[in-house]
C-alpha cells in the first residue's frame, strides 16, 4: 500500500484540529478574545481553582507566558487570583462573574463549529467517532502508558504490539 499523507491518521488529526481552531477563531473574533484568552477561559472553566503552574502545564505553555496573559485578563476583569490556603506562595485562578455570558457564547460558537465539522454523520456515527477518539487518547495518555508498562512486566506486552 502506498503511503498517502492525506489519509495518514496523525496528519488528519492535526489538520482537523487546526481547521477547527481556525473556524472557532473566526467566529470568536466577535467576542473580542484572542485564541490564547479563549483557551485560558475554556481550560479554566474545566479546572477552576487550579494554580498557574498547573494551568500552564495543561496549556503546554511557559508559566511566565501564562502569567502575562493572566495579568491582562485580570486587568480586564475576566479572571482573578486568590490565595491558596495550603501554599502561601501560590495563587489559584478563578473566573469572574463577567465571564459567564462569554462562556455561554463560546459554547454556542463551539457547538456551531462542531456541527459544521460533523455534518453528514448521524448521531450513532458521531458517538462512535467520539468513543474511538477517547480510546486513542487513552492509548496515548500517561495512564495508558503506565498500564502498558506494568503489563510488560507481566509478559503481556506482546498482546499490544
Strand content: 5-15%
C-alpha geometry: globular
Over all CA atoms, what is the radius of gyration? 20 Å
Please give the alpha-carbon distance between the first and last residues. Answer: 20 Å
Helix content: 55-70%
Order of helices and strands: HHHHEEHHH
How confident overall, as mean pLDDT?
Answer: 87
Major sheet size, sense and barrel closure: 2 strands, antiparallel
Would you count the extended β strands for me? 2
Low-confidence stretches: 155-161
Describe the structure.
The structure is a single chain. By secondary structure, the protein is mainly α. It has 7 helices and 2 strands. Strands 1-2 form a two-stranded antiparallel sheet. Strand 1 and strand 2 form a beta hairpin. Helix 1 packs across helix 5 and helix 3 crosses helix 4. The longest helix is centred in the N-terminal third of the chain and has 20 residues. The C terminus is likely disordered.
